[in-house]
């Protein structure tokens, strides 16, 4: 009963905390609310008209929604780069940032699930994914594995920080014997969520663009570059607008993770380009379409030729110690790296897999305003959830939010 009483008090105090703030905070939350309302309106149009309201067709059946889903799985998995050194290796330099990283993982996973719902056409078909009720088809279907690992990772990233914050809210220390086993499990689970997502594409033999043994490792490399890059940007905002102090050495250590992952990701990109273009076969047509266009069709050229230079520039800037330790350059590099990987791992990965089709037909894909509206609404939902989680966690860690007996 006492724990329930404390939990009710925590919920009440959290609501009070998240509904009060500075003028800038209220403007930010109002903006996110407006974007979510726009997304809800666009989604209502999609529910009314069906997926015909999107740019997807029977030729290109995955588009903007699944592109964002694939990218955000990596952002969610990146929290492990803070969890492992903090909880497993006892590196105190990461301690201030780990709860922020796990909050970001929760927001990313919620967005992942929202994008899946949007791509399915509507929530009414979700019952098919419920074990024992729908046609779950476990363990044969890779989609069912994806459902399990995503929801399992969401559970871990909700319960571990909640336990720690719940104890701190009461003015008590969290017991490592309680949360460390879950933290260790989350390390392996984070790798699993991204590998399973990669295997989902990699196992489709009729799509040679994805049928690549390097896809899984490259998914991890890009995830551990883009995810921590976003964490650095979020930490920069928190340092600027809150009393929660993140030390320079914490950001510098995360920047080193980003740098190594970005270098590995770039090496793997070069390896893939060599494989596709040095000795091309008819299976290389998707790559030709992506990078050079095919039969006069070139809708993706502006996207990929924006992503590659940004990727290279960011990696070069991060590689040099002098540039990486200059926070203005570091934040700029992280921003353009995040954008580059979002393009490359989204449009640059999902759409070319369908072009040309199995019979050689080229049907290009362009997202509609409805898709863009729903996508912006879901990103706003993720930012809204993260803001609430971060504001509550920061106030508990600063001692401003405490249980009053």
UniProtKB/TrEMBL annotation:
* Keywords associated with the record: Cell membrane, Membrane, Transmembrane, Transmembrane helix
- This protein's superkingdom? Bacteria
In the bilayer, the protein is annotated as:
Multi-pass membrane protein
- Localization per record: Cell membrane
Gene3D superfamilies for the chain = Formate dehydrogenase/DMSO reductase domain (1.20.1630.10)
Q: Family per UniProt?
A: Belongs to the NrfD family.
- Name recorded for this polypeptide: Sulfate reduction electron transfer complex DsrMKJOP subunit DsrP
Check the record and name the InterPro entries matching this protein: DsrP-like, NrfD-like
Q: Which residues cross the membrane?
A: 25-46, 66-85, 97-118, 147-166, 178-201, 221-242, 254-274, 300-320, 329-352, 372-394
Short name of one Pfam family: NrfD
Coiled coil feature spans: none
